[in-house]
Design goal:
- The structure holds two protein chains of two kinds.
- Chain A is of the alpha+beta class.
- Chain A has two domains: about 40 residues; about 110 residues, Nucleic acid-binding proteins (OB fold (Dihydrolipoamide Acetyltransferase, E2P), Beta Barrel), CATH 2.40.50.
- Chain A is about 30% helix and about 25% strand.
- The chains are: A alpha+beta, B alpha+beta.
- Strand 1 of chain A pairs antiparallel with strand 1 of chain B, so a sheet runs across the interface.
């Protein structure tokens, strides 16, 4: 880099280009890292129909499954083991969990469980959250279940463990 | 009647802001001193109208005047008066009105303190501020309409959201957040004015930095207050969840912090002017983005307000401001030429540059993770969120890098330094780093990231305390002053420098406390039968039974959990479930026992009304209290920098 009185403008613009180039390279590397990080950590919001429909593709992904607790399906096992079925009226998914259920957990209530689909067809959940929307209604024929509305009315959905959203 | 006066005041504010903005821009173009005087009058008028409108709304809330639409929406005869006052900002329409109040106060303060200074740049700044003021007045007058008069007023109202009545922290978190968010309008206007007038000298950058620092302090405290509230009220045992709305408050904090640092290079060396202005503009745009995300219902969160026309209107304003910023930058950034240049080599200057680079990387990381689900849903219709591991995985290395710079930056000399100088500056603080690591190892820390945090934290702590002590020691030596006298002298002379290092000390403490609390805790989740115990760390927790409590605005089931530590009884903790009349489902409130070393945190998952069983989530969260203490240190350090300099003969 020369500092002679005739050159500064030229050398400054060259430095600028080099800096810009370095920034672009660094930016690209960073973007790659970010996109990779996001891709590995996505949490999908699905209903039982979508989950059953996805079949093997669902294995391993982190999923928030929303639906209604099927009446008569709640079973307490050894220790804190708990199993129940979640349904949207068309499809049903069996859920097993070891979390202690929240106060309002009962048959017929809307729930969101977060976890992964296992190869034995059971959904293993680490988090169990209860919807406090006054009535969770299974969607009628031709209706798409409004996963977003269920998520919105569910206690504890906004990224936090336990209880959160009013 | 109240509705009519309120609507008139809002209309007056809208007129004053619109007229003031136009007159301001005209005065800037024509360089008219009398135009500037009139612009200032319009600014004061806007502030006055907004203050009056807010006082009127508070009166209506206290009087439970349900003919006013907003009071009918959030007011209640059952709640105490302090809840009635705080419901001014508890719901969407009121919070926009409160925004107007804060904006009025800021515009008044910034106009008044600069009334005799910078006649070429101030008209531009006033024009931009009042344009923003006009927009928010329009928002209140049009889509929000808190002062709408109801033809058939109800005889009672529902009261604000129970979760927001649950804790005193909810009184102070939102106002602090607004003082942080809205305050960023002032540096935005100043930065735009610097671009428009092509002037950003050492004098004006100090004004800009002062008005950036003030909202920065509020924003810093507000972010942590929000975390504190979540910790004390929500019961999941943490203080930060990378919730989109938490991120929304964190993003402008990152860019504002970067700008506070680059502004020092502008002041000292006359470089990075365009860059600093860009950061300030971005900060304001990010506050608008955050406002849009909380006000539009695009995210579901504890912060969500109901959907209304306000969200889209803010989105339009955000787009206009973004276009304005980009256009102004593109056409005017060349006018802010550098007066000096950056020396290559290892120096404090370089540390500042890297600091800015990492803050911007941090901003992009969080921004992308926050906005990604929205984009995917808009494009592909798939609903998803970005999980916490992404944010943790990205932010830990960046945060640690920033902590590293926080240590070596101030240790390095300005400008070009010889390698011997650099070595002499950088080696001694390793002692502090080693000490902290040793303490960590003794306390049982074994994982790499917390140990690296302790190493850099100890290093930074030694540098920071050394820099705080340096001028004091010099005076004591040179002038034979006592410790107290020397401290007093240094504080009145080198105040900004001391203040910066006090803020740094707080930051070091925050980062160590976050690293330790998020990695070294213990947790258990059990279903207990009455009389049964569970062990957690040094504690034995015994479920003793359940009390039913009846309070004016709620009923509660209170679980009594006996706490023993090392066989010694240390009291009873009472996590509870609150039942509000307006809401069918209960809201749990955790019980926390705080000590200097850690918190014992109990949260009831379920309580049997018959008193026989309790679902208990128990946690030991180390060093939590230090996060709150360190934030107070940062806030006080920032305020200290803002105290007017005392003249000393």
């Amino acid at each position: 880099m020369s500092d002679s009185p005739t050159a500064p403008r030229h050398s400054r613009s060259r430095t600028k280009w080099i800096a810009l180039g370095a920034l672009v390279v660094a930016g690209a590397g960073f973007a790659l890292l970010t996109v990779g990080g996001i891709g590995e950590n996505l949490v999908y919001y699905w209903g039982p129909t979508e989950l059953v429909g996805a079949g093997k593709k669902a294995y391993g992904a982190t999923i928030r499954l929303g639906g209604q607790v099927v009446p008569g399906s709640i079973q307490h096992g050894q220790g804190s083991e708990l199993s129940f079925a979640v349904s949207d009226g068309k499809a049903t998914v069996n859920v097993r969990t070891k979390t202690v259920p929240p106060q309002m957990f009962r048959e017929g209530i809307g729930v969101v469980v977060e976890g992964t689909m296992k190869t034995d067809g059971q959904f293993e959940s680490q988090r169990l959250m209860v919807s406090h929307g006054n009535e969770y209604r299974a969607p009628g024929d031709g209706e798409k279940p409004d996963m977003k509305q269920l998520m919105e009315t569910t206690t504890g959905i906004s990224g936090a463990e336990g209880q959160k959203t009013p | 009647m109240i509705g009519y006066i309120g609507r008139s005041l809002i209309l007056l504010a809208l007129l004053a802001a619109s007229a003031g903005s136009l007159v301001g821009f005209a005065a800037a173009v024509r360089r008219s001193p009398s135009g500037l005087v009139w612009t200032r009058r319009f600014a004061y008028l806007f502030a006055g109208a907004m203050i009056a409108a807010n006082l009127l709304m508070i009166y209506a809330l206290l009087a439970r005047d349900f003919s006013v639409a907003y009071v009918a929406q959030v007011g209640s005869r059952e709640v105490p008066d302090w809840v009635a006052v705080t419901s001014l900002w508890s719901s969407l329409e009121g919070s926009i009105l409160f925004w107007g109040l804060v904006l009025g106060l800021y515009i008044f303060g910034a106009t008044w303190t600069n009334r005799n200074r910078h006649p070429e740049t101030m008209p531009w700044a006033l024009g931009v501020w009042l344009a923003c003021a006009a927009f928010f007045s329009f928002l209140i007058a049009g889509p929000a309409q808190p002062f709408l008069t109801l033809a058939n007023p109800p005889s009672a109202g529902p009261g604000p959201n129970p979760l927001l009545q649950n804790h005193l922290l909810m009184i102070i978190h939102p106002p602090f957040l607004y003082l942080g968010y809205v305050g960023m309008t002032i540096p935005f206007g100043l930065a735009a004015a610097a671009l428009a007038s092509g002037q950003l000298g050492a004098e004006f950058i100090r004004v800009l930095r002062t008005w950036l620092l003030l909202p920065w302090i509020f924003l810093t405290v507000a972010i942590v207050l929000g975390g504190w509230w979540a910790y004390e009220v929500l019961g999941w045992g943490g203080y930060w969840a990378w919730d989109p709305v938490e991120n929304a408050s964190f993003l402008p904090w990152l860019t504002a912090t970067a700008a506070l640092h680059s502004a020092i290079l502008v002041e000292r060396k006359g470089i990075l002017k365009g860059w600093t202005v860009t950061l300030v503009l971005a900060t304001f745009l990010l506050t608008l983005l955050g406002t849009f995300m909380t006000r539009s219902g695009v995210f579901n969160s504890v912060h969500s307000f109901t959907q209304s026309a306000i969200g889209p209107t803010i989105l339009v304003f955000l787009s206009i401001c973004t276009l304005f910023s980009v256009a102004t930058l593109a056409t005017r950034i060349d006018t802010l030429g550098a007066e000096g240049r950056l020396e290559p080599g290892v120096s404090r200057d370089m540390a500042f540059l890297l600091n800015n680079l990492f803050f911007v990387l941090f901003t992009f990381t969080v921004l992308i993770g926050t906005v990604f689900p929205l984009v995917v849903e808009a494009v592909r219709g798939v609903q998803m969120s970005v999980g916490r591991p992404y944010f943790d995985g990205m932010s830990v290395p960046i945060g640690v890098a920033l902590l590293f710079l926080l240590g070596i930056g101030p240790a390095l000399p300005w400008g070009r330094a010889s390698s011997a100088q650099v070595k002499r500056a950088l080696l001694p603080p390793l002692a502090g780093g080693g000490l902290f690591v040793a303490l960590g190892l003794v306390a049982g820390v074994r994982t790499p990231w917390p140990l690296v945090t302790l190493l850099f934290g100890g290093y930074a702590a030694q540098v920071t305390l050394g820099e705080l002590w340096l001028p004091v020691g010099q005076r004591m030596k040179a002038r034979g002053e006592g410790v107290l006298q020397a401290v007093a002298q240094v504080q009145s002379r080198g105040r900004r420098r001391s203040a910066a290092f006090i803020v740094h000390a707080g930051m070091v403490l925050v980062m160590i406390a976050i690293a330790i609390s998020s990695t070294q805790g213990m947790t258990t989740e059990v279903q207990l039968v009455r009389g049964q115990s569970v062990a957690l760390g040094p504690y034995t927790l015994t479920f003793l039974g359940v009390d039913r409590v009846s309070e004016p605005h709620r009923e509660a089931l209170v679980a009594n959990v006996g706490v023993e530590r090392g066989g010694r009884d240390v009291g009873t903790l009472k996590p509870r479930m609150n039942y509000y009349s307006a809401q069918r489902e209960p809201i749990g409130t955790p019980a926390v026992r705080t000590t200097i070393a850690h918190d014992l945190y109990l949260s009831a998952l379920n309580i049997d009304p018959g008193g026989q069983t309790l679902g208990l989530h128990a946690m030991i969260n180390p060093m939590i209290v230090w996060i709150w203490v360190a934030t107070a240190i940062m806030g006080l350090g920032g305020l200290f920098a803002l105290l007017p300099a005392r003249r000393i003969g």
